[in-house]
Amino acid sequence: MNTKTVAIAGMIAGIFCWCGNAPAQEKKEGAKPAAQAEMEAPKPGPEMAKLNYLIGSWTLSAEYVKSPMVPEGGKQTGWYKARLGPGGFSVIADFEAKGPLGDEMGHEIMTWSPDKNAYTVVTVGNSFPGTVMGTGKWEGANLAIESSFDAGGKTIHMRAVYANPTEKSVHIDEYYQGKDGAWQLMWKGDAVK
Q1: What's the distance, CA 119 to chain centroid?
Q2: How far apart are CA 171 and CA 164, in angstroms?
Q3: pLDDT at position 46 over 60
Q4: Over 90: is that where the pLDDT of 22 sits?
Q5: Burial (0-12, 13-18, 19+ Cβ within 10 Å), 106
Q6: CA-to-CA distance for 145 and 158, rounded, in angstroms?
Q7: Residue partners of 68: CB distance under 8 A and separation at least 6
């Protein structure tokens, strides 16, 4: 084969390749170009939809039970207001409460972390320095959030269980981990919209 024949054969092969792909590249009515389709913003998954019950304004009635953490116990009242965060990828909440530990206020952010296959919860408040980091998972119909923080040189482990939450009410039990490793009830409350 001479050089001219090879060049013509290459052109013919190129034309066949181009013609074969041309119909696939035609813009269908209403279809988005490939580059635009790839650049669409991600959407929150079903894990975030499961937190929609939190959205809104809640009134809280609670009680610290007598425990080594709060020896005298006592009643607590307060509120919690939650909204969706940017893009619906988080729930952002503000809260205030009055009770035996004084006036408490703070902010909470909850988001789904696919790499952990769990919710990440970040809380800041006026009754502790820094942040309290937590991890949440559904246990059947209950959302359980475990967190740890330092207090006076000791690490405190906490567990909050949101029992059977609905759009209008939720019961919450909060535990601390004792020296023996067992969870001990410290606080219980009911929140209603």
Answers
A1: 4
A2: 7
A3: yes
A4: no
A5: middle
A6: 8
A7: 178
